[in-house]
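User: Okay, second chain of the day. Same drill as before: sequence in, structure tokens out.
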Amino acid sequence: MSTIHQILKKHWGYSDFRPQQESIINAILGGNDTLALLPTGGGKSICFQVPAMALDGICIVVSPLVALMKDQVQNLTKVGIKAAAIYSGLSKREIDITLDNCIYGKVKFLYVSPERLQTEIFQVRLSKMQVAFVAVDEAHCISQWGYDFRPPYLQIAQLREIIPDIRFLALTASATPAVEADIIQKLEFKEGYKTFRKSFDRPNVVYAVTESEDKQSRILYALQKTKGSAIIYVRNRRQTRHLSNWLKTEGYSADFYHAGLTNADRQLKQDLWIRGKIQIIVCTNAFGMGIDKPNVRLVIHYELPDSLEAYYQEAGRAGRDGIKSFAIAVTNPADRSSLQQWANSQIPDNETIRKVYNALGNYLQIPLGSGKDTSKPFDIIGFSNHFDIKPALALNAIKTLHQQGVVELSDSFFNPSKVVMKQSNEALYKFMVANKNLEPFIKAILRTSVGVFDQFVAIKENAVAKLTGTTSQEVVKVLNRLNQLDILVYEQAKETAFISFLQNREESKYLQINKTLLEQRRNLIIEKAKKVIEFAQATSCRSKIMLNYFGELLKRDCGHCDVCLEAIKAKKPSEIQKEIEQLFNQRLEIEVEEFKLLVNVGNTKVRNVIKYMVDQGELLHTNGVFKLVR
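Assistant: Same drill. Structure tokens below.
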């Protein structure tokens, strides 16, 4: 067995682990249930990927986000590690073949949505797998006190009934003490479990909230003061395009991003921004998950986010390289009122929930008494127009049905064309001899789709067309024919969201609605919105407020958020600053040690003035010397 350091170097190219990673990995290797609380950018995936490579068997990764699963499978495949994923929208054939490969093939990681864990086909196959351990990503989803509660997470612990000696690694980037306790209880951690918490403090990130009716002016001011890559978060898709176009007229390199774009557009915009070809990305909260760009200098919230958890994660995309960066929220009374109204509208009344449930069954043509585990493509706009329901109201009702464990709405994603061979090499050779007209196509498929005998792999119809001197349309026809002849399984590309019925459909009047849970969720959403507003209106250290929210005590003010800087400025003794400035009258710079002798740094007021001058850019501290900016 390779050592974990050898594995880290071989597959990911790193010589050292980040703080806490090695301890978490050793806890899993030691057979312990483990909880890892690592802030955004803390390297959660390494914590389960490295021990999985060190152990025999497959690692099952539970994740709620299809896009994130697909990204991780793609990234693992790039470094030569076999990985697969099961989620809503896959055909039964795809799921069947994927699970077979997890039993008999060499798949090392199986990513699965929590809803798929409860299906009979998964549980039967699971009992035949050699499972190393289960990694539960976004583990806060298991808690009703979390900001993204998903009832199917509550069933994860039932995997212990199928594999009694299984160990769990739960990972999250945002958990309050109540959520932390909930995760440990709901996953039924065994005695001797380990908990690791990396500090949520980001001392290089400056939190600031600016009050303004003219938000665009404040954005321009922030961009002028802070050079480098930037993210601007807004609430709706229309606003992403509007702000992006406006920034272009102001001379900035900007683009927009939201979940409604095609996969190709999203990928292109994301890649250009990551490579620095675009400075500013204006986006909804669909942007950022799984992205680890180190040199983001500025994150702006054009409107207040829904919760401090969301704000921390999104603001946390700034300054991952450890260099000073800024997280700025631009707000005003109308903005805060809008957030309160949003929170109050998130849980529809029972009548609306039943109406939307019945409409879903009719729209998707699900007969009464059937539909369990059925997944169908879903267009929220088309659905809303058909039944004359406002899209926002329909979406909230569907999300509530999801919270109740009745249906599942996947995030919109792109599924590329995929193919897997059903025949052996020998049988395929005989088929080509008997069907000479299809031989060039089969050879082109084998040439462009490495690993096609083992599992589903992506296929590009245009690449096969180029090799065969035909068109993509002709290639699609041939692939469908080979599919009908049982030579291979072909799944054509599609891009859509999916709705899955987690229970058989019943008459809406009999739908069981947990009113207590609904009321708890309503109160929680409203409370979390209040915490965001309190943060925005705070008159005390914002870093301290943020850390206290996550159960971490910051003993003294951070000294660099906007509230702290204003306090320092208000208390600034002008005479001390004048004395410091006079030191530079006859010289350009002073070495640090000499500076300490000339200035009474033991005095708190003096230290505060020096810090203030450095933070304001009036005094530069570089390469062991101080310089005054005149």
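The chain is about 45% helix and 15% strand.

User: Thanks, on to the next one.
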